[in-house]
Design a protein that fits this description.
By secondary structure, the protein is an alpha+beta fold. The protein is built from 5 helices and 23 strands. It has 3 domains: about 110 residues, Immunoglobulin-like, CATH 2.60.40; about 30 residues, no CATH class; about 190 residues, no CATH class.
Length: about 400
């Protein structure tokens, strides 16, 4: 058997978070043959090595596995479950992980985020609700925990990071079928439900309640905040003085949210809301939907990277997006993850946005994947599935100013 391609994802996780420091971490990879097809249900021999200092450095840790791939070609390993990771002093040098399949070295990558600083006397821990604690160990082995102060944007970011690290099963579903079981790592919901019910409600209850009040004002027929509630509320905060050519009017805030339009101001953890136009939804419903169902009101996402300007283009940017979706984005982890059987649910991938030439630098078109042929654009009288947008806006949770 010839293995041609290896796609791998490192997942580090906390276990028994307030009792002991774990000595293992998860490793997940997708195996493909030389033709690019996944190796489904294949028995393979995996050798894992951790190298110190460089890709050709000293081998300080080795484990040997005999495993069977899943139907998706996925292998799941618990590194440290066979040999003891305590011998690796992760905080005294840089380290690289090397994987061999059936005796052939497939790749070596740096551990940019070390599993644990096992020799450190201080350790930062994040609880499931996104709050951060610093542990201290004295010379007698006594452990104390201190809650760290953090702004709401960081709390939301840490909450979403926790969900990703705790994720075992995920699927895109609507409210009637939604499930969140943190003990089992199950997170099933749609885009707005994930952000609002799974993230904000747990880590920023006042911000959640603020959105909950907004949906009762803007869309009282709904049972919960959906994408158009996010957008209409945030657009209302931006106000009637908004002017594409006046950057001073392109940012506004209330006691819970900072709302802005410029892609230059985006940072990891910000919310990005794309709202679909009401006239487009009506047209789509009349043409494609049954008499009862209506198309989505839009999409709620979290920005998961700094904007990357597209080469040779002044107004196109790629963004890594973290969301719950029924269809993966570009280079999406959901396509290779054992937690998502159908490629849907919570994860992250890349989208492309085209921004205004005005001072606002507001996105007004997007591609679901950077490699897609066609942009989704602002709604016009020319009706088709791509001319659907009502608008795009960014928002960031801030401290209550009252």
């Amino acid at each position: 058997m010839k293995v041609g391609t290896l796609i791998f994802v490192l997942i580090f996780f906390w276990s028994s978070i307030f009792s002991q420091i774990p000595n293992k971490f998860k490793y997940q990879a997708v195996l493909r043959n030389v033709s690019g097809n996944v190796l489904a249900n294949e028995n393979v021999i995996i050798d894992i090595s951790i190298l110190k200092g460089s890709t050709t450095g000293t081998n300080v840790f080795t484990e040997h596995y005999n495993v069977t791939t899943t139907e998706q070609g996925i292998i799941n390993l618990n590194i440290g479950s066979i040999s003891d990771l305590k011998s690796v002093k992760f905080n005294d040098d840089i380290y690289f992980i090397q994987i061999s399949v059936d005796g052939t070295i497939m790749g070596t990558s740096q551990l940019l985020s070390v599993p644990y600083s096992l020799s450190s006397s201080n350790l930062a821990l994040t609880s499931p609700n996104g709050e951060t604690y610093t542990s201290s160990v004295d010379n007698n082995g006594n452990i104390t925990y201190k809650k760290s102060t953090s702004n709401p944007a960081n709390i939301l970011l840490e909450r979403e990071k926790y969900i990703l690290s705790n994720l075992e099963v995920t699927k895109y579903v609507h409210s009637d079928d939604s499930i969140m079981n943190e003990e089992l790592g199950i997170y099933n919901y749609d885009c707005s439900g994930f952000i609002c019910e799974f993230a904000l409600k747990t880590c920023l209850p006042e911000h959640y309640q603020d959105l909950y009040t907004a949906y009762q004002e803007f869309h009282p027929a709904d049972s919960r905040p959906r994408a158009w509630t996010f957008y209409d509320y945030f657009r209302d905060i931006l106000g009637s003085n908004y002017d594409l050519d006046d950057i001073e009017t392109c940012t506004a805030q209330n006691q819970y949210w900072k709302v802005f339009t410029s892609i230059d101001s985006v940072q990891k953890g910000d919310l990005l809301i794309a709202r679909y136009a009401d006239d487009w939804r009506t047209w789509y419903h009349d043409v494609y939907s049954d008499p009862v169902s209506w198309p989505s009101t839009g999409h709620v996402m979290t920005v998961w990277s700094s904007p990357l300007k597209v080469e040779d283009s002044d107004y196109e940017y790629d963004l890594k997006i973290m969301d719950s979706t029924s269809s993966p984005h570009g280079s999406d982890v959901r396509e290779y993850s054992a937690s998502s059987a159908d490629g849907s649910g919570i994860g992250y991938g890349w989208m492309r946005f085209k921004v205004s030439t005005h001072a606002s630098k507001r996105p007004y078109q997007y591609k679901w994947k950077p490699t897609s042929d066609t942009y989704y654009t602002l709604y016009s009288s020319s009706t088709d599935t791509y001319t659907r947008l009502g608008g795009i806006v960014f928002a960031r949770p801030i401290n209550n100013t009252k």
